[in-house]
């Protein structure tokens, strides 16, 4: 059974930092892109960042320059380093991976940025 498990969310003040982790089990994702999405209350789930198998990162304009996505294929884990956090970054953050035509989502981790 494939699972993606996020961790690292929490409450932080404006300007603070958090590091999210997403660890996969049940299969390896080292050869596929993995990504982070977020969903604020009452809004749709939006793209945040994605990382290719070779480590190239791509970002939404709203987080570019503040967030950094990385991966450790040996640990089957993808990270999201979030700096200079803003109240508008408050959301549930989800990890996603697609392999062999199947999309997997984690259960999400809450990030709350207080003003």
Provide a descriptive summary of the structure in words.
- This protein is mostly beta strands and 115 residues long.
- The chain has no helices and eleven strands.
- The protein has strands at 3-7, 10-13, 18-25, 34-39, 45-51, 57-59, 67-72, 77-82, 91-99, 102-105, 109-114.
- Strands 2, 4, 5, 6, 9, 10 and 11 form a seven-stranded mixed beta sheet that branches. Strands 1-3-8-7 form a four-stranded antiparallel beta sheet, with no helix packed on it.
- The protein is globular, with a radius of gyration of 13 Å.
- The model has no long low-confidence stretch (mean pLDDT 96).
In short:
The chain is mostly beta strands. It is 0% helix and 56% strand. The protein is globular and about 40 Å long.
Write the layout of secondary structure elements.
Elements: E1 3-7, E2 10-13, E3 18-25, E4 34-39, E5 45-51, E6 57-59, E7 67-72, E8 77-82, E9 91-99, E10 102-105, E11 109-114
Parallel strand pairs: 2-11
Antiparallel strand pairs: 1-3, 3-8, 4-5, 4-9, 5-6, 7-8, 9-10, 9-11
Output the keywords.
115 residues, mainly beta, seven-stranded mixed sheet, four-stranded antiparallel sheet, 11 strands, 0% helix
Secondary-structure-based class equals mainly beta
Largest sheet: 7 strands, mixed
> Considering DSSP H and I runs of 4 or more, what fraction of the residues is helical?
under 10%
Percent strand? over 45%
Principal-axes geometry comes out as globular
């Amino acid at each position: 059974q494939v699972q993606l498990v996020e961790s690292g969310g929490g409450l932080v003040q404006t300007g603070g930092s958090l590091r999210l982790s997403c660890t996969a089990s049940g299969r390896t994702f080292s050869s596929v892109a993995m990504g982070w999405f977020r969903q604020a209350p009452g809004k749709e789930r939006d793209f945040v960042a994605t990382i290719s198998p070779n480590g190239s990162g791509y970002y939404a304009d709203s987080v570019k320059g503040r967030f950094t996505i990385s991966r450790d294929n040996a640990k089957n884990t993808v990270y999201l380093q979030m700096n200079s956090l803003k109240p508008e970054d408050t959301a549930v953050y989800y990890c996603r991976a697609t392999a062999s035509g199947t999309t997997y989502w984690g259960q999400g981790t809450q990030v709350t940025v207080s003003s």
